[in-house]
Amino acid sequence: MKINSKLVKVGVAALVAAGLGLSATVVMAKTVEVTMTAKETPVVIDNRGTEYPAWTFDGMVPGKVVRVKEGDVVDFKLINPKSNKESHSIDFHAAEVDVLNEFGPVKPGETKHFKFEAKRAGVWMYHCGAGPMVQHIARGMYGVIIVDPKEGYSKKFPKPDREYVLIQQQFFPDAGDYKAMLENRGWTNSLINGKIFHYDPVHDPDAQAVLQAKPGERVRIYFVNANVNMPVAFHPIAGIWDRVYLNGNPENVLYDMATVNVAVSEAGIFDIVSPADRPTNNAIVDHTMSAALRGAITVLMNKPDADPKAGKGDNILIRSDIKPMKHHVK
Length: 330
Hints:
Layout: H1 5-19, E1 31-44, E2 51-57, E3 66-69, E4 73-80, E5 91-92, E6 110-117, E7 122-127, H2 133-138, E8 142-148, E9 162-171, H3 178-182, E10 189-192, E11 195-196, E12 211-213, E13 218-225, E14 232-237, E15 241-246, E16 253-257, E17 260-262, E18 267-273, E19 280-286, H4 289-292, E20 297-302
C-alpha cells in the first residue's frame, strides 16, 4: 500500500498543533489563473458618452479586479495582439520578481507568461510599465489586485457589509503628448473608475450610478491612486473613516481619520459606517479642490431600500454602460 507523505505531514502538523493548544485549521493556498489582453481601443470617459483613444487591459478602464488570498500563486498571462501598435507590459505591485524579466515589455504579436506568489496581504495597484510609462498609465492601463489576509476577518479587521473599488486617475485629453503628462501640463479632469463624475448625479445629472448601502452598514472602500503625478487627499464628506488600513494590510490600522493622504500609485482600505437611525448621504472626494471639482467626487447613499446586490460578490467595481456619442477626444 502506498502512503501519501504529504497527507502524513499535514496530519502530524495538525496533531502537534492540537497538542500545543493551537488551531489545527489548514489553509491551502491555490493557483489563480489570470489572463489579460492589451487592447488599444476607444473607451467612454464621461457620462455623456465622449470617447477617448485609450490603451487598456481587456478593453476596460480600469482593468479587471484581481482578487486572491495571501499565499496564493498568481499564474499570469499577458497577450499583446498583432493588431496593436505599441509594446505593453504588466507591473503588479503585489509581486516580488525581476523588473527586467516578468515586468519586461511585450511586443505586438507576443505573449508574456509568469507566476508569482502573493506573499503579503494588502491592496495593490497594477499597471503597464512599458515606455513611456507615464503615457501607458494615463491612457488607461491600470487596475487593482486585492490580496486578502490568510487569517480572514478579526476584531481588528471586521467583515464589511459591502465593498467597493474606487480608482482615481488624472485625465489628459491629448493622448499623444506624453511630455505634457510628465510635466503635469494639460490635464483637465479626474476620472473615478474611468469616468468623470462617474457616481455623482449632483454635479453631473447624466450620472447613472451611485454607491449604495443601508444605514449603519460598514462599507469598505478599496482605493487606488492611479494619478501619474498628484497625491490624493481622500476624505468622506459628512462622515469619518472608522478605520483605515494603509496599503490594505490589517496590521497597518488607523482609527477615526478625516482625511488621509494617498501617494501616487499607493492603495489602501477605508471603512466608513453611517448612522443607523436615519438615511444619510456621503460624498467621497479628493479634497484637493482642483481634482474634486473636475470629477473626483463619488456619492454614497445610505438608505433602507439599498440594492441588496450592490457592493457584494462581483459587484464591487461598478461599470456604467454608456453608449458612445459622436464627439471624440483626440
